[in-house]
Design a protein that fits this description.
This is Transposase. The chain is of the alpha/beta class. It contains twelve helices and five strands.
């Protein structure tokens, strides 16, 4: 009787909640369900596709993203059904871990005002870029990662990985972004107050590229939250789950994740589209 009630109500409520209400375990319910209900071929295909997509996402897609991806690939399904299948298949999503900041704002360099002022929604590519630095541990020592993000598509358009976090690391990432995108003069460049971005060398590079410099307020990570969010993603979706024997292995992992992030990972801010697809749609509209 309890199991039948759960089966009747599963379209309205999650299996987890119903099992808790009826004081039965989910595993017991699924055993009962499998004995009396032979799965339909389409359900078997859906489960197989869901499991494959979950693996492709590096075990990071939850029910919402999986439902969007499945529907886009010809398997129309709701979020709650996806959640039930995930519970049945025991697919557990990776969750983020805390990590320390790398910003060193204790310097005597000139600081720029916060021109961006958390205006993260822009109307076209190459209007505003954000940048930051993070790190990854290997058995050979620390490696540092600098990235440049286009706020319009949240795409990582420039990056650099090295054994240090000097100004040249940030400059290398910026040069890559500049030569790839060739932005018009006046682009807004936003960063934290780190010494790399406030240095004379970096400010001269921004002048040469005709960019406006903007910096976060002191100790306020929310002023650069899109880039912070990217590093949170790369940490808990990839880097934190590996023990890198060499720095070369860590660099390859970063490159692999960047390809996944830009070209395959659905971004909630972009309406569950990838950064590359979102940018391509813009240029198709104005063509």
């Amino acid at each position: 009787m309890k199991y039948e009630f759960i089966k009747e109500q599963e379209k309205a409520y999650s299996i987890k909640l119903l099992c808790k209400m009826m004081q039965v375990s989910r595993s017991a319910y699924y055993r009962w369900y499998s004995k009396g209900h032979h799965p339909k071929p389409q359900d078997t295909m859906l489960e197989a596709k869901l499991k494959a997509l979950f693996g492709d996402s590096k075990n990071t897609y939850g029910s919402r993203r999986l439902a969007k991806e499945l529907t886009a690939q010809g398997f129309p399904v709701g979020r709650y059904k996806v959640r039930r299948i995930m519970e049945k298949l025991r697919l557990t999503v990776r969750y983020p871990k805390r990590f320390k900041q790398t910003t060193d704002s204790r310097h005597g360099f000139e600081l720029a005002p916060n021109l961006l002022n958390r205006q993260f929604k822009v109307t076209a590519p190459n209007q505003a870029w954000t940048t930051d630095i993070s790190y990854v541990w290997t058995l050979e020592g620390w490696m540092y990662i600098a990235v440049v993000m286009d706020l319009y598509s949240r795409q990582i358009i420039g990056w650099a990985v090295d054994v240090h976090m000097r100004t040249s690391l940030s400059s290398k990432a910026l040069r890559m972004a500049f030569w790839r995108k060739k932005p018009s003069p006046g682009l807004l460049h936003h960063s934290d107050r780190g010494s790399q971005y406030a240095s004379y060398e970096y400010r001269e590079l921004l002048k040469l590229m005709n960019m406006q410099q903007s910096m976060s307020r002191k100790g306020n990570c929310w002023d650069n939250s899109p880039t912070e969010r990217f590093f949170r993603s790369i940490k808990y979706e990839s880097l934190n789950y590996h023990r890198f024997a060499t720095k070369a292995c860590a660099k390859l992992a970063v490159i692999d994740y960047l390809a996944f992030y830009n070209g395959r990972r659905l971004h909630s801010t972009l309406g569950y589209k990838t950064p590359l697809a979102f940018e391509q749609e813009f240029y198709q509209r104005i063509a």
